[in-house]
Design brief:
Chain lengths: ~400, ~400, ~400, ~400
């Protein structure tokens, strides 16, 4: 690792923190700074004019990478197919974006000849671990700089940061006050801080950004049909679309009906609990649809094992250990299972609820007219006799043994 | 096992099927029949006058057992504490009642000197397995009669059954048509058959019985506060109540807001898929509240392990293998964990949705004012440096080794 | 399913049982019988002249299939790579052969135009389930005949069977007495019955067939080097060989040193316990070598997850549910992991023991000269400070919270 | 946490490292030092005169605690009952002692009014984590001093340490050379370093201390009978003994026959691999006996679940997270299961091998004379028909559905 980096690739969002980090890195390391912007669908408000902004803060270069499609197809959709949900609630929109962004940052760093990587994550969160786990797996030879963890980083309030920029005549539109800390992409938006820090308070309505309040949502439900091939969505309401359009469409529909709000006190990887509010409108109905499809096409052993697998896979997503052999192996298993996940599912959205109400598949194992197979061909009521006898045999043996032993003792 | 039983205890519901089974058993085995009625909260409509009804069909005795409290405290609440949900959806109201009912039936059979047990479950369902697994564990010496699986049972339509009763002058109020097959208790009601057998059709509105349609539910949300001690509910909205009152109260509130409807294609234990609709109003908000409480009081390792445990425990509930050493061991583990599950959770009900929006506990591990512990006492940002280095060390080593190997190959 | 089969493919071993089954099937069904012989390495003693034997008992055709290579490469070696061991002991030589044999039987049945499949397994064992699970997965349209479970099968002693053949002038060299029931192939031999049925008796020395008694084994240990590529063995002691030769070589070496004897009371799938003795000489050292190799090349998360996977995969092997989506998915995961399992392992054999004592791999994650990476590049002692602080943070928070609560209570 | 500790409790072994730590702590912190000696059966060679030794190095107090019985009964035996083995090999003798020792150290610290805890573990190992995880759980208010991780600790060679003591006129019998790093207690001894650091070298014979070389072991095998009550050993060869005597007896027998040697490349918690050699003579045959007993008394579901549990419990033992809710919950489950683990097992020891060859239990589920239950009472061959039909039903349905689909495609 270089003792003194000369060119640093920083994951740049255009927000206040990373706007300070660019000049700070230049000054502290006497190094060139490359701003790497990952477009994972956070939206134009954040991305418009970002190159100009990066240069104005002192970046020698700004690389903007459109990762929207790979974010969905290599990361978010596989997670949805797997069915992983962190601690029963969180659809992991921030977690799943980190390896995608960090991989792009590493690529840009290597292409622009950087010898160090930097990010603007704080020292108490999960994101620092996710970024640096990806760095370690893909480019262990590059130095890592996490300013927030350095004793020399003293910009620990928005005011201090605004002052820092003002002194350097770096223009910045950020406000002094910020109620919530947020992270957005095509899959979700997260909210932390403010009133959310009291778990005995309900999330205030001003938290939410992507979803209509259920109370304000339409009085008429809306059914949306999602079509799948091998677990990947291919069409919405019969119209074939690319992944990004599918996600935008689902976000719009679900958001309109107030679907996808999550409120959770969660265990961070770094050992403490935090309370977060999340909106994953399109992701929520995509997950619902996938689960509805699974019901039709996966047999019991497969589905139950996949449910356990989803828990373990989810920890890897949350922890940012995406580029690891075990995570890859789990996905190999899920891909094998997902081969039969073809079909259509109708999800009904209404005032915050979403439920798969119809589903069909060429690979369905359900048979409405089961009898048409012929009773002797597939199932005979009397088969259950033997099944139950053997299924309960261990209990029967134990009970008989105990009775005999009891009688022995009783004599 | 007796080749010819002389006194048979039958699990009697008062419905058409078991009303036929009593005379049928008497005639086929020349045996006395004891009707055992388990009151698990299915309601007065089913229970009123049931003793009289049982005797009028030929039972020599009718034993009515009030199991409501033990059903909740020994079966349903432990399942809720464990957090088991079958195939991600089904709250297992029918499954969890079966060992409770079957145990009472065995007790009544032994008390009344029966040498056989009978039930009215069909040969393609799960319930036969659940009943007979309990029989095997608790009274393997008693014979088991499952009329529906016998070639001599030829009452295979409602019409045939009504004729059978009419010929014998046994009064019966049952109708010839029955759209859905249902099972009810304090925890839930299930619906199968009819239009539900087509998974490409949404459940028709006439299916539902315990819950208002979300579209008809109040326009104003309702917050309900549930208090817990060791995971067991002790009060609703501040009023301390017994278990049965708590359940009735929660069912009323949730039902009014359309909460607790489930629509699922599930894998039966006996190897085929079936589609069911379920209503578990009170159970849904109780589960939601417990999960909200867990978020506060369980550390990550404990919660994540409990989630896996819940999947495995759920299979035992669904399969009816309640009276087994492994199921008991899992519950011993959950009890150990649940010691800290004290506190209050507010669940918000609105048009089919229910969400824990507030939670507090004397055993909370969440700290809003985390900083008050003092930075050096609990967490120092720089601790994350070392944590991440070691957390990602295996990835780093692998990558470094591979780089070295790659360079070797490149020469 | 045909009510009356006209041509039946029977899994034929040449032993007394299946020698009776051929004429019995012909007579009872008035059907042609095709004898299907699977060569999975059981040895010449069983296979010599088997075609002639089959025809002399009445088979219209005898199909001998050499499955030795596919048995190892598609079944036994994958199981060894996975590391599955049933109930901590049994290396599943019989279990793993069944899907291979049954698949070949189905192929032969379809090629010869049969409409039914038959096997000679008894009604209390696992093998009937393994055979018929494969039939169900690969050829559900064919009828299944399991004579031992039929009330019409009355040849329930060796004497009855010998008489049956004698009456029909079918020559048979089988003896009236048979101490143990055995099953052999390239991977192992199993022994059941006789004195083994008392678990309070040690296995008598006359049980064992493939392995020298440790007490008679050479006084000098022997080191054997096994080389692997992607987890599959490729060479022994430096000599590259095909799979069958590798297995024969390993069996010879291990057998000479008394390695691979197993004595176990196991849980059968059909609900009862049985006691078996097994010899898996070559398999034992192959498994030992693979575990030694894993130690070098798999990181902790991967190895620990694979250990859990091995338990679940093992149940599928034991139960005969090989041709199922979940089993295939697990193997997809293991294959992904096994990509790095290249290298050499030396296993030391001595008087019944075998232990991996040396191992090396191009993909080793172990570093003898760890320091050569440079302390700052890979590991700094002080990193452990932060790691331990965060690793134990949940315990610290819980303890601090409890102390505070205790103090509160103490006032 | 105190910025400057005034009285420090150090885990003292009497070895060179901790002999230096006492004066070093006194000098660096100007603090009193209490030496806490945990007797976990490491033997007189280490313990003789240790109080005198501690004082001569500057300890103001030396507390010797006999933990042998609690080490076995609260830690080692529960681990053995659980059946946890780390990475398939390591019986975790060092890991399991750490929480026992650290708890005693905390107790002594609180009793002697200390405000800090210190240990002599290095910064690359697991033991530092195990010690400090226990500290965090039991006494988070005490400061923790880990000299080896401090930049001010510069005694990084045996020579430097010997010089350090010589300058201070502190007598020390330690030698300049030490081939292996070792840790011993009643359960095992571990060896690291020296030639062991090359995994391509077999462990040299001079490594081993507790076990005779198999080649030198007696030519005659020895059978040892261990009796159990609830999983805990109560007698050896029919003689009832206390736990410590049982362990000493088993160690002597197994050691004489060369049983219990382990050679392993393992994954440390701190992210790197290391190679260790271990001797666990008595533990090996105790584990073997317990597994033999389980075979008789645990049904399939229970045993298979316990095997998965053992893997997860083992990680907690290895990682030192003993005093955590999840570890306690797992043990609650295991205790529930172990209630039936009564009986006797004979383990045969011979030249490095040990195998349970006989086992009996009043709770045995095995039945030699199974038929004596009567065929119709417990098992009827024809029951298997129905069992297999339903067991393989998912495969059959899938295959039939696919055939139909295939035919459709074929038209």
């Amino acid at each position: 690792m270089p003792t003194s980096p000369t060119k640093i690739a920083v994951a740049y969002s255009g927000g206040l923190d990373t706007s300070c980090i660019i000049p700070w890195l230049r000054e502290h390391y006497d190094a060139d700074v490359v701003a790497v912007v990952a477009d994972v669908g956070q939206g134009d408000r954040e991305l418009d004019g970002i190159e100009q902004k990066a240069r104005s803060t002192g970046a020698c270069e700004c690389v903007v990478m459109d990762l929207k499609q790979e974010f969905l197809e290599e990361f978010a959709f596989p997670m949805a197919i797997m069915g992983s949900v962190y601690e029963g609630r969180y659809l992991m929109g921030t977690s799943i974006a980190r390896p995608c962004i960090a991989r792009a940052q590493v690529t840009a760093a290597l292409q622009t000849g950087c010898d160090a990587l930097a990010h603007g994550c704080t020292g108490k969160g999960n994101d620092q671990v996710r970024f640096e786990s990806t760095y370690a797996a893909l480019a262990p030879q590059l130095a890592v700089i996490a300013p927030w963890r350095l004793p020399t980083w003293n910009l620990r309030s928005r005011e201090a940061m605004l002052d820092y920029l003002a002194v350097r005549n770096i223009p910045c539109a950020a406000s002094k006050e910020k109620l919530y800390s947020r992270d957005a992409n095509l899959w979700h938006i997260s909210h932390e801080g403010g009133d959310l820090e009291d778990p005995w308070k309900a999330p205030p309505e001003d938290v939410w950004m992507l979803t209509t309040s259920p109370a304000q949502a339409p009085d008429q439900h809306q059914d949306v049909t999602i079509s799948f091939k091998g677990g990947f969505p291919t069409a919405v309401d019969g119209r074939t679309m690319d992944s990004v359009s599918i996600m935008n469409t689902l976000n719009a529909i679900a958001g309109r009906h107030g679907v996808g709000r999550i409120d959770l006190v969660e265990n961070r990887l770094v050992g403490m609990k935090s309370r977060g509010a999340y909106e994953t409108p399109g992701g929520t109905i995509l997950m619902e649809a996938l689960r509805g499809l699974e019901q039709l096409v996966l047999d019991r052993d497969t589905l139950h094992w996949k449910q356990r697998l989803a828990l373990e896979f989810g920890d890897h997503v949350y922890n940012g250990t995406w580029f690891t052999p075990v995570r890859a192996a789990m996905w190999a298993a899920a891909q094998s299972i997902a081969q039969v996940m073809d079909g259509d599912v109708v999800v009904r959205c209404y005032k915050g609820t979403s439920a798969a109400v119809r589903r069909r598949s060429p690979n369905s194992l359900f048979s409405q007219n089961f009898a048409t197979f012929g009773q002797d061909e597939v199932y005979d009521h009397k088969d259950a006799d033997g099944f139950i006898r053997l299924f309960s045999l261990p209990s029967r043996i134990r009970a008989l043994k105990q009775n005999i032993a009891t009688q022995d003792l009783a004599r």
